[in-house]
Predict the structure.
Amino acid sequence: MILVLLGAPGAGKGTQAEALAAATGAAHVATGDLFRAEIAAGSALGTTAKEFIDAGRLVPDEVTIAMIAARLARPDAAERVILDGFPRTAAQVEALDRAYAASGRRIEALLLDVDRDVLVARLTGRRVCPSCGRSYHLTNRPPRVDGCCDACGATLITRSDDAAETVAARLEHQLGALQAVVALYRDSGRLGVVSGTGGIDEIRERLARAAAAVGLTPR
Ligand code: AMP
């Protein structure tokens, strides 16, 4: 099955998708991470994506859909997948449905629901590891040693699109797009809503229950 984890920037999708993938044996596929890897590799796709990402805008559908199709064709995505950050537009929802229509694989969506003021606080306090990609927060999830990644020891950075001036633009552009995607899954009877407010462990348990209810059970 394919579980689409929906949420605004800062809703906690990445943190929670990683935990849910570890608990269920699903592949965690995050379009933001795929783009950042392309940017780090200096590829043509990365160069195109960077312009949009740094402006707080969505990368064009054709670029995003081609990249995710290549990732989902890999063997680890053959059975259970958690999608984090995709689909983000109506065209992406349709492309995903079309890609799996013949296979009969089930696609279910869960929305991590968080108020806007909480999103802003989470985004501006986020720090990430440029080496292994792990995500931290100055107050909600601080690293053991200030400024250093717990997993690999690299110096943590602020993502360029988490800068205070980009956060407002990102939320404005992306909340509207998210509403459209949420409506499509709701209208087709494939949407569950989970509160994304509270402690990380509490949200993880809530999400695990909702995922199990739609068939993504622990392994
Ligand atoms: P994220 O790490 O999910 O917040 O993604 C970082 C940035 O990558 C977003 O702000 C977008 O600019 C871009 N991005 C990620 N996923 C998508 C997508 N499905 N469609 C278009 N742009 C995306």
